[in-house]
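yo, Biopterin transport-related protein BT1 is done. seq:
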Amino acid sequence: MLLNFGVNILTYLISTSSTRVQGFRSFVWTAVSYHLKDRLKLSPSASQFVSSVAFFPWSIKPVYGILSDCIPIKGKRRIPYLVLATLLSLVPWPILGLNDSLRNSRWHLIIFLTAQNLGSAMADVVVDAMIAEAVRFERSSFAGDLQSVSWVSMAIGGICGSLLGGYALNNLEINNIFLLFSVLPTIQLVSCSLVEENSIGCKALPEFADFNSSPFMNGNGIKLDEDNFFKKKSNKSASRRKKGQKNGNGRAVLHTTSQIYEKSNSLPVNWFHSVKIATYSLLRAFRQPIILRPMAWFFLAHITVPNISTVMFYYQTEFLNLDASFLGTARVIGWLGLMMGTFIYNQHFKTLKLRKILLWAHTGLAFLSLLDMALVSRMSARYGISDRNMVLFGSALSDAINQFKFMPFLILSGQLCPPGIEGTLFALFMSINNFGSTVGSFVGAVLASILNLSSGSFDNLLLGISIQVLCTLIPVAFLFLIPKEATGISA
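structure:
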């Protein structure tokens, strides 16, 4: 008992250190944004292109989950991958901090930033898996703490990173900021040595084969209707009876698959079969209309709305002359707005139908874009509203409303994950969300290029925001893809 408690405490420490690093990334990425603008002299569209490419590793998170689940390193599935991921997220920063030529080369910078995001995304997946395993082991006694602390740690890291990032830019050189940030991944790397993971041997794990126990299929292999699924999710006792009836099939498949592994003495072959089963189960689950339709909506909700945040960053720093410390404060307000959005959602919105929540969220985002139009057209200044107040007010509200959109995504993702592949399928859902954001950034970069929005040239920015307002309403027409009976209450 004491040993298990100690293991969970260490998992607790690693998860909080990892999520604080994720949140604190705003400290260094603010510096990256200024470096692209001031040192490399990139246009807003080119700067957004660099950032979009660098963040692409967050769009393929299931790959990391499948690898860590199916291919153990020296009999261990978590800590070796976490060490590798931490090294990938650590090494680029001291290199960029010490080598001026690499730091000032666009393509070298893209390579190092992409490698850094690869490590961060992989670490995020591995830590999520470690948390899930600790939650499953301890059940109710430890479950709520790990998830809650992960969110709180990320928020604390984001607030600290935003505050210190602006201060650092006003007092330190970019290379010193890169070197200073490398301290955090180093601490995370040291924390990995504190955990001793139990060895599972070198066999690949066929745990993904238990997909036949999926709640999307009844005993006769007939797909369940979406609305019936969400109605039945509220009846937990009935769900448990259904799962009990299907466990026989799951165990039979698992036993058959295990025999396949026993017949093969080749470790690479075992790994190949395990990866194949995991991939097949993942794709088979994703093809279910009850999963495919809502995930298609969240993807469309990103790609149909051009992201011109980088253009607004250039406008705020060059035309409005807002300094780095103030923009850091604005990001802090944004983090607080995100936390406020989470609280309001849990108190007042979670009982509503998801379609209604998402409708109001997109309507609110369109309204906030109108506030940006008032800022750019200088209408707010004519009415005596300062630019700083407009930016602070818009930052807090936009992050709060975006949380109203993200919370239904998290809730729906949790409801849709069938047993046996929860972690990897949830990583796939997050990847879809991240990839949609990346595509939306590319669309925004293309729009900025078409409108000739560049450093010092913002004549067409008002037109760009107007296009964004109209595009924000497009996903509303596709809300029929969201299950009708789904609500914000996690089942």
